[in-house]
Amino acid sequence: MGTDNISSVMVIFGGTGDLTHRKLMPAVYNLLYDKSLPENFCVVSVGRRDKTDEIYRNEVYESIKKFSRIKIDDELWKNLRDRIYYQKFEFNDDYGYSKLKDFLRMLDDKYQTNGNRIYYLAVAPEYFELIVEKLHQHGMAENEKSWQRVMIEKPFGKDLNSAVYLNKKITDVFTEKNTYRIDHYLGKEMLQNIMVIRFANVFFEPVWNNKYIDNVQISSSEMVGVENRGGYYEKAGALRDMIQNHMLQLLTLTAMEPPIDLTTDSIHDEKVKVLKSLKELTPDLVLKNAVRGQYEGYRNEDRVSPDSDTETFAALKVFVDNFRWAGVPFYIRTGKKLPVKSTEIVIQFKPLPGVLYFKEYGGLMPDLLVIKIQPEEGVFLQFNAKRPGTLNKVIPVRMDFCQNCQVGMNSPEAYERLIYDALRGDSTLFTRWDEVEYSWRYVDKIAEVWKNNKPEFPNYKPGTWGPYDADELLLRDNFKWWNIGGFYDENV
Ligand code: BG6
């Protein structure tokens, strides 16, 4: 990766928060390690706690030591350390912004950063609008002779209306071109690989349609509960926290048509078409095709209401109603306190006509292609072959490609790629406004029905695959969830 034309100051609002310590600072350090950080670059963290540069730098050092994928090298750290600054002020404090503005000008001179800025809003969503407004009022987002970009963490709104409102506030100041909406899943290696696997191999693309595919299963499971995020999660739930963004992004990449080229807009255009083709949800369809769950014990978590109706699990049956996919169910599921931490896309192919290999030969298992997003990154293929030494007995065999199992392979973290792309001005791996808009349109229909129907919660035990209704969703169609996370054996 090169570092031309990306000289800038990265200003992180929320500099003392979890995201900054666990993800952003280690990502900056790893970019430096990979020689992808420009020489003319520094970081200013803004927070509300009182601390000196010195104290802050020591804290960042500890975080990098703990969370970086690459072991910290003290020489290299010295190179970064002196380029990290801390500024304390409340996000509504005008004096704080004018001081910051002067400080950034001084840093421009020191680091030759030409007025280029990345403002990273690693703060609770209620501050997005305020900070953008203040940056505007103080003439810090003017985009004349230099560039100023804003990176915004999710959640981008809590429904369509609030997202439209927020979007206007942000793009009035920064314009769409300079707005980088983060969906960190897009920064993951294997999400970027989905398009390559699909569009660079002759044996996948021709069968990637409703003639050959029986169903698609997209799962993202976590073993953890809500941990210390009960306050946020109560208002979000699995639908807003995972489905509206990460899961629908996985769906669009799996279902999209090949773009006419690899430019940002061409790719986003195709992704949006998938979202526009999602089969309209009526309240009846929501009741039939959307399942929610809550794990036992969630109501006792910190900052969670004792009679909470927030879902910690969601499973959907979705149709992409276009020429390629009509009739193929896409099953999506995500949840907390499930048996494994894993994200995978399973493509189940249609059976061949059953005229040759009947039961006496062992029956035929469906061909499966699994795109393994995390923790293993790779592709798994299951197909039928003759069992050695028998009379034509057929068994499923597997080819398993794991790219991050190879020695010395240490895939960059999502945030490294995202920060680097924002520095380069490439928004391909960020969500364009219409993607966010159409995702909310879809998800709002589900949220509306769920709001008006009281669930029977809790309905699944920690360490299980969610409520029975999620299994039922597939059994009705004579399918079953394929286990994920490398436990395919059980299915054979
Ligand atoms: C975040 C959600 O966006 O993604 C979290 O807010 C979730 O609730 C996380 O745990 C999962 O991300 P990853 O990269 O660990 O799969």
UniProtKB/TrEMBL annotation:
Domain Glucose-6-phosphate dehydrogenase NAD-binding: 11-193
Listed EC numbers: 1.1.1.49
Annotated keywords: Carbohydrate metabolism, Glucose metabolism, NADP, Oxidoreductase
Active site positions: H246 (proton acceptor)
Binding site for substrate: H184, K188, E222, D241, K336, K341
Listed GO CC annotations: cytosol
Natural source organism: Thermoanaerobacterium xylanolyticum (strain ATCC 49914 / DSM 7097 / LX-11)
Top class in the EC scheme: oxidoreductase
Positions contributing to NADP(+) binding: R48, E90, F91, K154
Pathway where it operates: Carbohydrate degradation; pentose phosphate pathway; D-ribulose 5-phosphate from D-glucose 6-phosphate (oxidative stage): step 1/3
Protein name stated in the entry: Glucose-6-phosphate 1-dehydrogenase
Catalysed reactions listed for this entry: D-glucose 6-phosphate + NADP(+) = 6-phospho-D-glucono-1,5-lactone + NADPH + H(+)
Ranges for domain Glucose-6-phosphate dehydrogenase C-terminal: 195-482
A molecular function GO annotation: NADP binding
GO BP: glucose metabolic process; pentose-phosphate shunt, oxidative branch
Protein function: Catalyzes the oxidation of glucose 6-phosphate to 6-phosphogluconolactone.
Family the UniProt entry places it in: Belongs to the glucose-6-phosphate dehydrogenase family.
